[in-house]
């Protein structure tokens, strides 16, 4: 028996192609496309058994708010999120909002149909490999290099990092050159590049910025010759 469903996506061609494919497989598709802003209202009004709700950015804050509203006002509607390869946190956010599953945009029609049937039966519908990845990352989260210190550190070469650490330690150009085994002119050039990349005008400002953002802690100690 066909499922009474909706395909709601702001990419009309994608929505209509998927809707047509599902119709050919015996399902009753109530609507094919709608802008993201009106998705919840449309689903609530039409009340399908299953809704395929498209998203282009599963990690964006608030992206699953329509799912929350649909489940609050039409709890009997099973919502399948249709989107790109998600981050594990994107999958977790979808389920936290009340989604019954997650289907990739590039999934074969047979896979989409299996997910629809599972969702209508009240089962979680998500590919095993996506679920394994989600559990793996959530249980063993990778460090997120999104803070200011890490961002600044990523802009510098290893040699420039060493120069910055020596500047923060109060070394002048002569000491930096001697400690690194380079010419004073080369040391001076490295210092100028560090100042330029950090967007500061003096060595004192560079040292203060590095200390304030935690960059020096990430850089680690400089190995000194005995």
Automatic annotation (TrEMBL):
Pfam families on file: GerE (PF00196), Response_reg (PF00072)
HTH luxR-type domain location: 149-214
Stored PROSITE patterns: HTH_LUXR_2 (PS50043), RESPONSE_REGULATORY (PS50110)
InterPro entries the UniProt entry points to: CheY-like_superfamily (IPR011006), Sig_transdc_resp-reg_C-effctor (IPR016032), Sig_transdc_resp-reg_receiver (IPR001789), Tscrpt_reg_LuxR_C (IPR000792)
Leader sequence residues: none
All residue ranges annotated as the Response regulatory domain in the record: 4-120
Keyword annotations of the record: DNA-binding, Transcription, Transcription regulation
Protein name, per record: LuxR C-terminal-related transcriptional regulator
Organism: Streptomyces tibetensis
């Amino acid at each position: 028996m066909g499922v009474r469903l909706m395909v709601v996506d702001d990419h009309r061609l994608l929505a209509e192609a998927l809707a047509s494919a599902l119709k050919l497989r015996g399902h009753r598709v109530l609507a094919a496309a709608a802008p993201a802003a009106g998705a919840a209202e449309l689903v609530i009004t039409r009340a399908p058994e299953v809704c395929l709700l498209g998203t282009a950015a599963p990690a964006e804050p608030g992206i699953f708010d329509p799912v929350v509203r649909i489940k609050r006002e039409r709890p009997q509607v099973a919502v399948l999120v249709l989107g790109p390869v998600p981050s594990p946190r994107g999958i977790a956010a979808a389920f936290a909002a009340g989604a019954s599953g997650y289907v990739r945009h590039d999934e074969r029609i047979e896979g989409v149909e299996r997910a629809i049937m599972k969702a209508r039966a009240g089962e979680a519908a998500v590919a095993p490999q996506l679920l394994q990845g989600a559990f793996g990352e959530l249980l063993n989260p990778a460090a997120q290099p999104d803070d200011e210190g890490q961002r600044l550190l990523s802009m510098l070469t290893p040699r420039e990092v060493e120069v910055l650490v020596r500047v923060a330690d109060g070394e002048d150009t002569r000491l930096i050159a001697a400690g690194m085994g380079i010419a004073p002119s080369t040391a001076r050039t490295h210092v100028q590049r560090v100042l330029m990349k950090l967007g500061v005008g003096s060595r004192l400002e560079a040292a203060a910025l590095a200390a304030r953002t935690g960059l020096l802690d990430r850089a680690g100690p400089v190995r000194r010759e005995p």
